[in-house]
Amino acid sequence: METIAQKNKGFSRVNHVGIVVADLDKSIAFYEALTGLKVSNVDQIGGDRMAQVLGLKKTLIRYANLHLENINMDLLEYEQPEPVKAHYDNNQISAMHLCFEVDNIQDAVKRLKDAGIKLSGEPIIFEAADGLKSGFGTAVAYFDDPDGTHLEIIEPQGPFKRERK
Hints:
Helix content: 10-25%
Number of helices: 4
Radius of gyration: 18 Å
Strand content: 25-35%
Protein name: Contig59, whole genome shotgun sequence
Keywords: Metal-binding
Oligomer: single chain
Order of helices and strands: HEHEHEEEHEEE
Domain VOC: 13-156
Organism: Pedobacter lusitanus
Structural class: alpha/beta
CATH topology of the largest domain: 2,3-Dihydroxybiphenyl 1,2-Dioxygenase, domain 1
Number of domains: 2
Distance between the termini: 22 Å
GO molecular function: metal ion binding; methylmalonyl-CoA epimerase activity
CATH architecture of the largest domain: Roll
Strand order of the largest sheet: 1-4-3-2
């Protein structure tokens, strides 16, 4: 019997998420403090071939890689072309956010607040009044990184909870 991964020809796994940042060193410090992990490397890439694959005329990017348990993060500081700041509200089409799974939302919120990170609002725990049919007991909170990238923490229950291998 063919598995979902075989049917999808490998599109059932995510390798990394890339986040464009204004200041690589500042973002490295933020994400290392947030995750408790150290970046695996800091490097730069650019040139005609890289620009072409990105659909740009020229490019030079300083970057760092951070390896989490289930996904890698690329922090990317564009030196060429000159970066421009994007702004997305959570309800805008094509807006995205990155969600970190935690075992205890209250402990995670305390850690964020102790690090000086301001939450978008106080955490909530999903209940029937939220319009869900399942997932009750799931807790979430939202916050932004130094450049305004939307981030979330979740203590998942029900269909939001994945089996850990």
